[in-house]
Amino acid sequence: MPATNTTPLSTQQLRAHVDRLPRYLLGHYPTPLEFCPKLSAALAGPRIYIKRDDCTGLAFGGNKTRHNEFLIADALRLGADLLVWGAGVQSNNCRQTAAACARAGLDIHLVLGRGGPAAEPDQIQGNLLLDYLVGAYVDIVEEAIGIELDGRIARETEAHRARGRKVYGWDKHVCKPLAAVSYALCVAEIMEQSGALGFTPHALYVSSAGSTGAGVVLAQKALGLDCRVKCVAPIQWPWDTQADMGEIADKAGRLIGLELGLGKSDVEVSFDSIGPGYGKLSDAGIEAIELTARTEGILLDPMYSGKAMAGLITDIRAGKFQPTDSVVFIHTGGTPALFAYSDKIAAKMHPRRLPAV
Ligand SMILES: Cc1ncc(COP(=O)(O)O)c(C=O)c1O
């Protein structure tokens, strides 16, 4: 199929473009698109739908199930026998990539950055517990995530190569656009599902400062959607995140034969919901987690989806939607981290008490 800039595409045409890339199936699709009547009523705002990508089906689900279908396929295509991957100790990415490797019969070495010496033994909980259970080789190191940890991962990768392993390493220029392609498929599902339910989304909200949001933007442009896409960043990277996401979206498009000329101005990303910092709880995030759990029985996570929902709640309270509008919130998963942060969450949550008799 030649490269094209003839858009809008139908969802079927978009799928056909994506089909030109190798894919290693890992997930349960389509994930449900659920109307949340009680959450919508509690906020007296638009009709809120949640795209349940926490139910993608691999090791407690989340956005990295979709990402990994393209990354694992690429690793297998290149004949790799080992992935060297890394992020924070409670990384959802690492947990899901380790599970994907278990499925694909690949080894994985996780280099998890603690960001300093250990004040106490690392708690084997949440994502870290799952990393061990799915058989990853886990190294917890003192480097902080970002440039420092990336350097360490690169050195570990070279050491494995010197020992003769065929390593698929984290190269953000390759991995991020490949992962982004997977979120074009998620948007195709949303549009097909919303069409079947009889509504058109006015806005899509998603937790992202990288591939996930870039893939959503790619589909927004490819499908010609008249719908706002708001990425709520969980982290402030030391680079221009908006420009980076625009570039990822453009490269992802080229990978599937679409020349859309995407860039910084195509991406809307907000840093207003990070709270005290990446990896730290925010009061608004805890409120969002409690409200969503108590109205819909749906659990968000403390670092990504909870903060993104807090971003949506802020916009609703600021009057940015009409009651007749429909908003789709993409739940990107991350729920195992609830258990790793249990003490901190317990200190901030608001348990219901039975009234005194
Ligand atoms: C649960 C969850 N949601 C959202 C994200 C954001 O993903 P990205 O910035 O790569 O799009 C992550 C990243 O690790 C995540 O773990």
Task: Give the strand content.
Answer: 5-15%
Helical fraction equals 40-55%
Which structural category do the helix and sheet elements fall into? Answer: alpha/beta
**pLDDT < 50 runs, ≥5 residues:** none
* CATH fold group of the largest domain: Rossmann fold
- Please count the beta strands (DSSP E, at least 2 residues each): 10
Total domain count: 2
CATH architecture annotation of the largest domain: 3-Layer(aba) Sandwich
What small-molecule ligands were found?
pyridoxal-5'-phosphate
Walk me through this protein's architecture.
By secondary structure, the protein is α/β, with parallel strands linked by helices. It has two domains: 11-61 and 174-348, Rossmann fold (3-Layer(aba) Sandwich), CATH 3.40.50; 64-170, Rossmann fold. 44% of the residues lie in helices and 14% in strands. It has helices at 11-18, 37-43, 63-77, 92-104, 126-133, 147-162, 172-197, 211-222, 241-255, 283-296, 305-317, 337-340, 342-348; strands at residues 33-35, 47-52, 82-88, 107-113, 137-141, 167-169, 203-207, 228-232, 269-270, 326-331. A six-stranded mixed beta sheet has the order 1-2-10-7-8-9, with helices on both faces. It has a four-stranded parallel beta sheet with strand order 5-4-3-6, with helices on both faces. Helix 1 runs antiparallel to helix 7 (172-197) and helix 3 crosses helix 4 (92-104). The longest helix is centred in the middle third of the chain and has 26 residues, at 172-197. It is globular and about 60 Å long. The protein starts with 10 loop residues before the first helix and ends in a 9-residue tail after the last helix. The mean pLDDT is 96. Pyridoxal-5'-phosphate is lined by residues 62-63, 92-93, 207-213, 234, 301, 304-305, 332-334. Pyridoxal-5'-phosphate (PLP) binds at residues 62-63, 92-93, 207-213, 234, 301, 304-305, 332-334.
